[in-house]
User: What shape does this take?
Amino acid sequence: MLTPPQSEAGRFTRTGKLTSILGTAGIYVIIILLLLVGLGIRQLDYLSLANLRSILQAVSLLGMCCAGLAFVVFSGNMNDMSLPMTMALSGMMAIQLIPYGIVVSVLGGIVAGTLVGVINGIMIGKFRAHPIIWTLAFNLVLSGLVRAAWGGSQIYPDTIAGQNETAQATAETFNLFARTYYFDGALPLMVVVMFIMFVLAQVIFSRTTFGNKLRIVGSQYEVARMSGINTERMVMTAFVLCSLCASVAGIFYASLTKIGAYSNGEGYDFRALTAVLLGGMTLAGGKGTMVGVFGGVLVLGMLTNIMTLIGVPTFNQYVVQGVVFLFIVWLNNYLEEKRGHA
Amino acid sequence: MQKTSNALDALNRNRAYLILALVLIFALFTPRFYTMFNVRSILSGSALYTFLGVSFTLCLIAGHMDLSVGYMATTGAMVVLGMRTNSGLPWWLAILIAVGVGAIAGTINGLLVTKAKIHSFIATLGMQFVLRGSMYMYCNGAEISVRGEFTLTDAINRAPLKFLPLSNLFICTLAVVIIYLVVLRNTRFGRNVHIMGGNRETAWLAGVKSDKLTTLVFTLSGITCALGGALFAISQGTATPTLGEKGIPPLMVALTATILGGTSMAGGKGNVLKTFASILAIMAMLSVLTTRYGKFELQILFMGLALAVAVIYETLRNYARQKRVGIRPNLADEYARETGKTLHIEK
Assistant: This one.
């Protein structure tokens, strides 16, 4: 805290080439390094279509969450801790509504999930609740609600559909969501949806007034408010978009596992935040791009993939993820400070 | 008008005791609530959560959030039994090592926050995963139990006075609460923590070394949580790496009690005794719910609702106040200085 003020010149000479490279394209440098590591371990197998597809498919759920969460982080609200229950709720609603047809089922799931974001948005955007404490609290409420509503049990598409022929067909369609592939099994539907979300998010960030306003809200809330931006609506929209993406991910999760359970999205809050921060966004908000976030998602997926290939047990992977997470956040802070943005 | 708002204010400030009283009155209509055995099990059951709640309150007063309290307790629990059962060390050494590990983890948290300048919420979130993974690695995913001799387990669960439902474990808990109460209220350390949480700049101007103090707060939090976990594991005779995640997460109990107890979410204000009262209220409420409905889901729902209602209430209160004062309350002071008139603003 008692650091002497640096002179302007000192600040600039300290910015080395390495920091600027790491700052802009850092995440893709890491991706290439990881690719090399993967090649070293598995030779050319690593670059095979099957492995690349499995990496992409494994990160697609995480990617969908990140595409939404990026808005929340960008708006300076740190994290949406109710992400896991949003995913679980939308998946369970979708499965519960299967007897009414596939359209109702999917829409119901998305609406239920988005409702979480609306409530979060009203509480945090309008009434300025503490984002972490409120979303943690709401996550607990939702967890209680979901458990009480379904009696604490899991639900399955086939049993919900019952003996009804059409409902069974709907359940089949529902289960097929996560198992649809294009181009002879090269491109899963989940990956396509993830890409669409990222492209849309990138367009929103860089080409719309909403994106620009959100950047100001994220970097300087007071300035945004005083320059006439409707900050309440900006933050609300960010949370709604976040839970919209999370509920789509939740439906895919339920379709992939064929199970609707309160534990469906467990751990996604932390992993999504890790990926978003890896991608160069900062917790202070207002910094970062979707291209970077996509890189962050890829790095997290490749890290898990490589660790699994080497044979690191799941529990040890927790430690590695935690350490990587802390290291990345520290590196981000450090580089920002070096560049004089701290 | 003024009088009623004062009375309401006092009521709100002491809402932890109010909730505890309400739950206890409600419990009158629950069969077999006020039996020696039930009261003792509630009090003993609150021990672990009290340790966590007290640590969480301490951190929140200092203006930080320690999300790793739950896994810190797991660490204490696993290490103490691991050292005793697997390594065969004497109890006192095992407890010392467990507390030491907690202290180290807490200090790392503190250094991450002060030296690496990571937001406390993020630093402890990462630490949570590191601790969780390393505890799984330490025990290979299995549970560790006390083997053979249960003298300490019996001693810690025994009630020294036959006519009072106070086990030794609960007496330890009370001692910790009292120590924290005295330290936070009557020492320079406690006052500095309050100043630092209230306003970082004021603390700096007042000469408080906030970096050192923050690290110390996190270290203390780690020590308390690890000690709580260790005592809990000894009293149960077993420890699992899922202590921090099964059922209602201990972190959520600590958070709920802290917020219900009136600790300010922005820091600088809080009372350990009120947190303790809230923990007792929560444990009594869970017991009543179990007796009446016997459903685990309802416990989670009610806990969540209690926390959510408290957060909503605080938020709306803050919102109404900001509407009245404006975002910058110092403008009201300026207005008073320039015009000689004072705005009546409820702080």
